[in-house]
Amino acid sequence: MAKPMGRQQGRQQQDDRGDGLREKMIAINRVTKVVKGGRILAFAALTVVGDGDGRVGIGKGKAKEVPVAVQKAMEEARRRMIKVRLKNGSLHHAVQGRHGATKVFMQPAGTGIIAGGPMRAVFDVVGVTNILAKCHGSTNPYNIVRATLNALEHCNSPAEIAAKRGLTVEQLTEG
Fold this sequence. Notes:
This protein is an alpha+beta fold.
């Protein structure tokens, strides 16, 4: 008897195509459309792609077969990459992100990656090696990934904060 597909959040797959980008599949969902003649099955995939040096993108793909859905998601993630400011494999400061009912909290740490599920996959592909992260609220993998990217986008370097205030980095760290 075949095993039902259901939600496979725990299943993560990493792939490397030779262009220097790391790919991770976060979740595959079986979705059903009910029509007059019966049910139409399809699969939805959620993936993240990163270069391990501060660039990351997320993608969603939907198709009748799993490999096609994953391929569509990977292509979308490659097109939608953003740049994240990192400091030696960690963040510059503690930051919070939010998407829908999901809230994530991240802070720099020297203890490796302490995060679960979808957040860990994002940190692996973006190149973060030392971080402490916690998720509150909804644990939907789509919302967690979006909230994580929201938090990473709002992380500023000391040089950017000093430039906004019209100071030098030394003046910023003194006061």
